[in-house]
Write a structure and sequence with these properties.
- There is one protein chain.
- The radius of gyration is 16 Å and the shape is elongated.
- The protein is α+β, with helices and mostly antiparallel strands and about 70 residues long.
- It has two helices and eight strands.
- The chain has a two-stranded antiparallel sheet with strand order 1-2. A two-stranded antiparallel ribbon has the order 3-4.
- It starts with a strand and ends with a strand.
- The protein has a domain of about 35 residues.
């Protein structure tokens, strides 16, 4: 559904967020790996912590313990 504001149409924003915040380094980035529980980690932090969080096919959320695929 489009809404009109001042004679212009405003499109709805569907899809992904435009900015993410890494819970490890606390930086705002255009992309982070996200879990359904809300935990977000940037690719750099995930690479640094890969030895404890990943088996190269999936990664484990440290907050809820669920397995997430890449």
């Amino acid at each position: 559904m489009n809404k009109e504001i001042d004679g212009r149409k405003q499109k709805r924003s569907y899809g992904r967020k435009k900015a993410f915040r890494c819970h490890v380094c606390n930086k705002e980035l255009p992309f982070c790996w996200s879990c359904r529980c809300g935990f977000q980690i940037c690719p750099d932090c995930l690479e640094k912590n890969k030895w404890g969080m990943s088996n190269d096919v999936t990664w484990f959320c440290p907050d809820c313990g669920k397995m997430r695929s890449f």
